[in-house]
């Protein structure tokens, strides 16, 4: 029994070597990015609760944009990974073009929307309550930060198009290096521009925004130069910009299988922001504490987030190559690995939460609340890890309806109504309210387990020929 269990859920040395070869560069990239973001957040936090909260509120909406772009590249990425598995350069080239077009359009629309609705969006998070700071000052800081940040939306979007395609074609190191260069640039400029070091003016939150925009431009430059100077290796790049035409059949397939995923990411992100907005009803202390909690949480969740993305790449490639039994086995073992790894990260998060909030220049009430939020987030992390891995497993086989049902529909049917009801219809304090809302991850993970057992995600989407027309091959269960 024990031997069977380990054989089923625990891989051998070769398995973990292969998984980590894909996952570790992403972990390093995302980990360093989030670590530097944490340092940036601390720097802004040294400017006071209002500055920290204003930037945090704007970043809630940047989170929606980032997830929209992630959904856009992931939509085409389903096909990129499987085209790579079948050796189809033409298909990869067309999916890349699709990413470039949709990312550019999404970025331009995002700039217009944020510029027109800046006041309305930021004030959603500003509520009077006992112990609240200066709401008008918080709004002013938020608008100041947003205005500059909008400049970086286009380079960010194009960076994701390049980085995702490189990863899906087994080049995970260069996106990591480009990200490291970018975060290093961001950190250095934050030091210089927020506090005015080396004779430069102290620009505060504006300095933080300039640093972010500059780092995004640098990351894009590094990726573009690297990729196009190695077109003999990345042969799908040859002729990429000779035309922006994407075959209608492929566009139709991406819209059918992929765009619903893009919509899912968008609506999931909006739901997450609405959940956090419900917390803000309890006052600016809740906004500040949630910012501190999420900053540290994002440092530790890179393990299960990266493992989830690795599932989409590794299992997607196996499905594209027709290795269906291997895909099932790989997915099962990576699910187990993700949960175990996240358990360790949860312990580290909980311990770190005892001292991390004291780095910030804020009130004792905010620090205490942030420590509590980290402990609750640590409890929910293994469940979140399983749900994340389940989502990417189902997505690797193009299970559009199921992933939407599992992800965004669950958020809108269960989490958002629950959080909004607690916030607006009850006098429940932020402590029990936060715990109830966060632990809904447990229900979601159970839901994911039931969906995976159906096995309908084991599906091939692309053809073997070096052509751009996709096919779909369902595998009997």
Quick description:
By secondary structure, this protein is mostly helical. The protein has helices spanning 2-9, 13-45, 49-85, 89-116, 118-123, 135-149, 153-168, 173-195, 205-228, 248-257, 259-280, 284-300, 302-320, 324-352, 364-396, 400-425, 430-438, 441-453, and strands at residues 459-460, 473-474.
Notes on the protein architecture:
This protein has 477 residues and is mostly helical. It is 77% helix and 1% strand. Strands 1-2 form a two-stranded antiparallel sheet. The longest helix has 37 residues, at 49-85. The protein is globular and about 60 Å long. Mean pLDDT is 84; it is low at 466-477.
Give the CA-CA distance, first to last residue: 25 Å
The proportion of residues in beta strands is under 5%
Q: Which of globular, elongated, flat, extended, rod-shaped describes the shape?
A: globular
- From the alpha carbons, calculate the radius of gyration and give it in angstroms: 22 Å
Largest sheet: 2 strands, antiparallel
């Amino acid at each position: 029994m024990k031997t069977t269990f380990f054989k089923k859920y625990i891989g051998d040395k070769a398995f973990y070597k292969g998984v980590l070869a894909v996952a570790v560069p992403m972990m390093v990239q995302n980990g360093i990015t989030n670590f530097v973001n944490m340092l940036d957040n601390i720097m802004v936090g040294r400017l006071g609760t209002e500055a920290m909260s204003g930037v945090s509120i704007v970043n809630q909406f940047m989170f929606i944009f980032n997830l929209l772009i992630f959904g856009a590249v992931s939509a085409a990425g389903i096909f990129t990974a499987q085209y790579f598995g079948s050796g189809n350069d033409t298909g990869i080239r067309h999916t890349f073009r699709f990413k470039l077009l949709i990312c550019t359009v999404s970025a331009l629309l995002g700039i217009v929307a944020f510029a027109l609705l800046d006041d309305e969006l930021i004030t959603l998070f500003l509520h009077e309550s006992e112990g609240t700071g200066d709401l008008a000052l918080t709004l002013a800081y938020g608008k100041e930060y947003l205005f500059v940040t909008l400049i970086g939306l286009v380079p960010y979007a194009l960076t994701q198009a390049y980085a995702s395609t490189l990863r899906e074609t087994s080049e995970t190191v260069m996106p990591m290096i480009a990200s490291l260069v970018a975060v290093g640039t961001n950190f250095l400029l934050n030091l210089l521009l927020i506090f005015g070091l080396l004779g430069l003016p102290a620009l505060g939150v504006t300095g933080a925004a300039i640093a972010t925009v500059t780092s995004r431009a640098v990351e894009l430059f590094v990726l573009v130069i690297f990729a196009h100077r190695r077109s003999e290796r990345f042969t799908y790049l040859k002729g990429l910009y000779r035309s922006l035409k994407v075959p209608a059949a492929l566009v139709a397939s991406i819209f059918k299988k992929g765009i619903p995923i893009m919509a899912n990411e968008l609506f999931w992100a909006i739901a997450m922001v609405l959940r956090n907005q419900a917390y803000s009803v309890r006052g600016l202390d809740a906004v500040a504490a949630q910012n501190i909690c999420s900053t540290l949480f994002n440092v530790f969740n890179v393990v299960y987030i990266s493992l989830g993305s690795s599932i989409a790449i590794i299992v997607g490639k196996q499905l594209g190559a027709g290795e269906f039994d291997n895909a099932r086995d790989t997915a099962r073992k990576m699910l187990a690995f993700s949960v175990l790894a996240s358990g360790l990260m949860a312990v580290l998060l909980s311990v770190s939460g005892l001292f991390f909030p004291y780095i910030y220049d804020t009130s004792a009430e905010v620090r205490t609340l942030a420590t509590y939020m980290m402990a609750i987030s640590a409890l929910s992390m293994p469940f979140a890890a399983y749900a994340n891995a389940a989502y990417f497993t189902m997505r690797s086989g193009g299970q559009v309806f199921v992933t939407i049902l599992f992800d965004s529909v669950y958020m809108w049917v269960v989490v958002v109504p629950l959080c909004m009801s607690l916030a607006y219809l009850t006098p429940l304090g932020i402590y029990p309210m936060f715990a109830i809302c966060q632990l809904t991850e447990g229900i979601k993970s159970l839901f994911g387990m039931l969906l995976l057992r159906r096995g309908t995600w084991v599906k091939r989407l692309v053809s073997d020929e070096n052509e751009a027309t996709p096919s779909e091959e369902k595998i009997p269960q």
